[in-house]
Design a protein that fits this description.
about 600 residues, alpha/beta, ten-stranded mixed sheet, 16 helices
């Protein structure tokens, strides 16, 4: 695959690299006396020199050889004595929208942490505004040095017939995107039932990707590690980030998949399988690292891929192997290994200088040979992006939400009624179905806050008066008050939950009026609000400002009684109808194993 993410293609500068390597022409930059992390041989090479020309590595001085012959009058020389030179870090599966800022602000947040490239699946924006929304995002992304590589959304909607989204993408549109310079593969194929059932459009999306010689990334959460997994892989899906146990990781590796080991803001999967993976001695060349979803306050306070690396080391993985998983393994998987993933001659000079190989503290970050960040600060600046109007006018409820809107009438006498409820799991995307009894008062089902049973409602926010809304119950959050958000994967409809109708109405109407986002309400007061006017998913502000807002929202959650990590993210997947077991969409409950609608009442 021809790589469009380098400053200069290799075929345009290879003659210059030859001359620089032999001392016939000076390099642009020379990094001297670094401790080179060789991800190709799993070594740390002492006192290495790196000569850079035309954005690529021209010469490596190893074992006593130096790059002095590459230095001219105009060459920038950097003394890296005591620092580790490693390839730039690559996130192999993520959604920029989860950072709640646009791509350029996301880049300003993560590049100082050593991230030089991301394989981004924008299916959040695509579910709201389709491919036009994706193009708007990449117009913004193109203003920064971060290599923002597109994996075309494959599941818009995530699965068909159970929810209403703002847009859709079919196989013909997938084929169109495979011709875009930004595209490196197909985004996570969440619709594994469509694959197993040989649904025509689903299979055609895979076929169009394979015809373009690009990989199909996966999302397989079914318990069947036998026929189901075999069939999924046989269809052409080659990776998966949805593994919860070591047995799942091992099963997928044995099937030849690349396994993306995940550590995001809420999905803290590494502790569940990495120690066993290390102890097993299994070859890790097909293991990758990813964040999937990182909130802005996580990025600002803890970092990005450097944070994932630190957790890998804490759990017993050696630092060089951890680096391989987000450098050379990552580049190889997406077909970019000829240009990225290692600090070797001919490769793009995407280099991070770390002070410590356990702390992964990025001192200097180079992308295509340019110094783009130093000591935790981005050295590039971007003006605020002027989003097109169609990206900032996406709240279309077609109604004013009042407390009466949340009345759930039931043909039952006052007392108790047994209903289905979604039971959330801390730090995981999975949910369970629970049978709970809720009060019936004046012929309507009510929440029971004292027993941690909240009322929930999902409103179609895309189709105005023609839209629908549906009710359910949820347990596991432990809050008093109400919460609402338009970050509700993957249709991103308006999701509201709470223990009283008045607070729920205030929460819903607050977001309807500000263009979307996240809000916490208690006893008639708005405790915290994160305004996300871009598709109801992203702010047009700075990442530090949004991080502070999210921090205040999490404090509000605690005030309301919740102690889950990144609770807004846990709440946000309650509508994700392709992850087991029970979900709530604007059409009602969905069994995410059988993909059938389920009734609210159990009696």
């Amino acid at each position: 695959m021809i790589n469009k993410f380098c400053k200069v293609p290799l075929w345009e500068c290879n003659d210059r690299l030859v001359r620089v390597a032999q001392g016939e022409e000076p390099a642009d930059t020379v990094i001297r006396h670094a401790r080179l992390v060789s991800v190709t041989t799993h070594e740390i090479l002492e006192d290495a020199d790196i000569a850079i020309a035309s954005g690529r590595v021209a010469y490596l001085g190893l074992e006593g050889h130096t790059a002095e012959h590459c230095i001219g009058e105009a060459t920038t020389v950097i003394d890296a004595h005591g620092l580790y030179a490693a390839p730039g870090l690559i996130d192999t599966h993520m959604h920029i929208e989860s950072s709640m800022v646009g791509p350029s602000e996301f880049a300003r947040g993560v590049v100082p942490h050593g991230t030089v490239g991301v394989y981004a699946d924008p299916h959040e924006v695509a579910n709201v505004r389709g491919l036009a929304g994706v193009r708007a995002m990449w117009d913004d992304a193109g203003r920064t040095p971060l290599k923002t590589m597109l994996t075309t959304p494959s599941c818009v909607p995530a699965t068909r017939g159970v929810e209403d989204t703002g847009s859709s993408i079919d196989a013909a549109q997938v084929a169109e995107t495979m011709m875009w310079d930004e595209t490196v593969g197909l985004g996570e194929m969440m619709n594994f039932p469509g694959i197993l059932g040989c649904d025509k459009n689903t299979m055609d999306e895979v076929r169009e990707t394979l015809k373009a010689d690009r990989p199909v990334t996966g999302h397989y959460v079914a318990p069947d590690m036998d026929r189901g997994l075999c069939a999924y892989v046989a269809a052409g899906v080659t990776s998966c980030h949805e593994s919860g146990t070591f047995d799942e990781v091992l099963a997928k590796l044995r099937m030849g998949m690349y396994v993306q080991l995940r550590q995001g803001s809420a999905w803290l999967n590494l502790p569940g399988y990495l120690p066993q993976l290390v102890a097993s001695g299994v070859d890790t060349s097909r293991c990758l690292l990813c964040t999937d979803d990182s909130h802005p306050h996580t990025i600002v306070s803890d970092g990005h891929m450097d944070r994932v690396l630190r957790e890998c080391v804490r759990l017993g993985l050696d630092p060089v192997t951890a680096l391989q998983m987000c450098t050379i393994n990552a580049a190889t998987y997406l077909g970019l290994g000829l240009d990225m993933g290692s600090v070797t001659p001919g490769k793009c000079a995407d280099i991070v200088l770390f002070g410590d190989l356990g702390a992964f503290d990025a001192r200097m970050v180079f992308i295509d040979g340019d110094l783009v960040a130093q000591d935790g600060e981005a050295l590039f600046e971007v003006e605020p992006y002027q989003w097109p109007r169609f990206m900032t006018n996406t709240m279309n409820l077609g109604m004013r939400v009042t407390p009466e809107t949340f009345r759930i009438p039931v043909d039952k006498p006052d007392g108790k009624c047994k209903v289905r409820a979604i039971s959330v799991i801390s730090g995981d995307t999975l949910t369970h179905e629970a049978a709970v009894e809720v009060p019936v008062v004046d012929g309507a089902l009510c929440a029971d806050g004292e027993r941690d049973i909240l009322k929930a409602c999902v409103f179609d926010r895309h189709h105005g008066a023609a839209g629908t809304h549906a009710f359910g119950f949820v347990t596991g959050f432990g809050i008093h008050g109400a919460l609402a958000q338009t970050v509700s994967h993957d249709a991103h409809n308006l999701l509201v939950m709470g223990d009283n109708d008045e607070d729920m109405a205030l929460a819903a109407q607050t977001l309807a009026e500000c263009g979307g986002g996240e809000v916490a309400v208690m006893d008639g007061q708005v405790l915290a609000l994160v305004e996300l006017p871009v598709c109801g998913l992203m702010s047009d502000g700075r990442i530090e400002e949004v991080a502070a807002q999210v921090g205040r929202a999490e404090e509000a959650w605690k005030t309301m009684g919740c102690d889950l990590p990144s609770p807004f993210m846990t709440m946000g997947v309650m509508s994700l109808a392709v992850v087991p077991n029970l979900r709530l969409t604007n059409r009602g409950y969905v069994n995410a194993v059988t993909f059938e609608q389920e009734p609210l009442l159990l009696e």
